[in-house]
Amino acid sequence: MYRWPDANMLTTIFHDPAHLLQTTIAFILFTTEWYHIWGHTLILFRIRMLPRKDLVRIRLYFLFDLLSVFCSSFLFTGKLRWLAVIHAAQHAYYYIFWEKTGFAKKIINWSSLDYLKTNLRNRWELDSIFGTAFDIMVHICMTYYLGQYLNVVQVTCSLTIVQVGIMLLLFGPYFAWANPSNIPAWVQKRLAPDKLKDPDVVPSWIFGRAGDSGNENKS
């Protein structure tokens, strides 16, 4: 899949502006797609998550996610456009109806630290799980085709950048990302799990009996 650079390849890269531009774009898209893969995987396996109040504020991330796949598929590789359309429809829905509809609120809740502090944490939300897994799969497919334009050194540099970014942004002390089993005190203060049982925030039809039990606890 990936090629080791040789003299001819290096000569082409530095003496052919079009090839240099193509490689640069592939490198940027490849790096972006791998960042998405890591981010979604950490949430899917409950390794790093955000408080709900912070998650609500990053609505633009869904647009960024949509555009990265659109550019990778439609504008660059020309591969798997049908898959990119499904991905775009999924993310466009969440971007447009963010914090407005039941399904949009549900994915926000499920992806948040607050969710794991409620009696809902042991539920298998299959739509959210499969939706996130689908998202990861789409990004993996994009990296496969983008990788055809890069050599081993470029791929290694890209993955190194991604790893550094993940460690700084998602594992660093600068933002509210935290491990659900070891939440810092200042992040704990940003949680409001009781609101997840409030029908004004989460429509009761989403949680069914769990919503009813939440109302009983209030009384």
Automatic annotation (TrEMBL):
Keywords, ordered alphabetically: Membrane, Transmembrane, Transmembrane helix
Protein name in UniProt: Uncharacterized protein
Organism annotation: Dreissena polymorpha (Zebra mussel)
Origin superkingdom: Eukaryota
Listed transmembrane segments: 20-38, 58-76, 126-146, 152-176
Upper classification of the organism: Eukaryota, Metazoa, Spiralia, Lophotrochozoa, Mollusca
